[in-house]
UniProtKB/TrEMBL annotation:
Domain Response regulatory: 4-119
Name of protein: Diguanylate cyclase
PROSITE patterns registered for this protein in UniProt: GGDEF, RESPONSE_REGULATORY
InterPro entries: CheY-like_superfamily, Diguanylate_Cyclase, GGDEF_dom, Nucleotide_cyclase, Rev_trsase/Diguanyl_cyclase, Sig_transdc_resp-reg_receiver
Source species: Paenibacillus silvestris
Key words, A-Z: Phosphoprotein
Single GO MF annotation: diguanylate cyclase activity
Length: 296
């Protein structure tokens, strides 16, 4: 098993023994002798396991453990290695959140197995967190298009009202004559077109700052962090959809288009008004012949 191990111990002899032994097991080893630099080293090395001595000058291993585990994002297992073999010391180390406590002199075969177990548990927890993130993402993603869904829009609206999310413009993107697409070519083609248009929208907005939603049916909502280039983005979406061609039969390609309603009058205290303005702009685009942008 591979893994990154940080050893915190003020005794060079102990460090050398552990470094040589754990290196022989093909682990990536980092060491620090100064306990006051331990937290800095943890951030620099992002270890999968920490081997921590208890008795050190200036700051004890118990204090280091307490400081590390107090951080909300800290999830690295800590194993104490100490000459303190008193029951109360062992219990204190475990109460502070350590996964194990080995007393010196320790058996290297036992250490090898305990390190392996700790790293295995760390890997399992990491995989579980990754799975949970993926599941959480699925809850808020539209299954057909891969864009965010209305459930995540509700969360976004709340974050906007609380000031934790900020946007300056909103646009509604709607397929032109989408009912005719479904009626003439079938829903499978219609679904393909919806996915293709969603991919175009996603490629035109900033993945770091903007959000794109499937608002409903063939309608998409895009929230833009910066209003300065919102018209440019809308134009690029229209042009890209214009070049979209879906094969319906051999030597037969179908072209598609969208209409866009845009508003940069973004009042975070009244999201309903933002949607209403974008909808009104979209209706204006459709009433003016479709395949264009209207701003309100």
């Amino acid at each position: 098993m591979s893994g990154r191990i940080l050893i915190i111990d003020d005794e060079p002899h102990n460090l050398n023994i552990l470094r040589i032994f754990l290196n022989s097991l093909h682990y990536e080893i980092f060491t620090v002798e100064d306990g006051t630099k331990a937290q800095e080293m943890v951030k620099e090395t992002t270890p999968d396991l920490i081997l921590l001595d208890v008795m050190m000058p200036e700051i004890s291993g118990f204090e280091i453990c307490k400081n590390l585990t107090a951080e909300a994002e800290f999830d690295t297992p800590i194993m104490f290695l100490s000459a303190n073999a008193q029951k109360e010391d062992i219990l204190q180390g475990l109460r502070l959140g350590a996964v194990d406590y080995l007393t010196k002199p320790f058996d290297l075969d036992v250490l090898e197995r305990k390190v392996e177990i700790a790293l295995h548990q760390k890997a399992k927890i990491k995989n579980l967190k990754k799975d949970n993130k993926q599941l959480a993402k699925l809850v808020y993603v539209d299954a057909l298009t891969g864009l965010y869904n209305r459930a995540y829009l509700d969360i976004t609206i709340r974050m906007i009202s609380e000031g934790t999310k900020k946007f300056q413009a909103a646009m509604m993107v709607d397929m032109d004559y989408f009912k005719d697409i479904n009626d003439n070519f079938g829903h499978l083609v219609g679904d393909q077109v919806l996915r293709e248009v969603a991919a175009i929208i996603q490629s035109k907005v900033s993945s770091d700052h903007d959000l794109a939603f499937r608002y409903g049916g063939d309608e998409y909502l895009v929230l833009l962090h910066n209003e300065a280039n919102c018209v440019e983005i809308a134009n690029s979406i229209i042009k890209e959809v214009d070049s979209l061609k879906v094969s319906l039969a051999p030597n037969k390609l179908q072209e598609f288009s969208v209409s866009i309603g845009l508003t940069n009058n973004f009042d975070p205290t009244c999201f309903e008004q933002i949607i209403s303005q974008a909808d009104a702009a979209l209706l204006g685009a459709k009433n003016s012949g479709r395949h264009q942008i209207k701003i309100r």
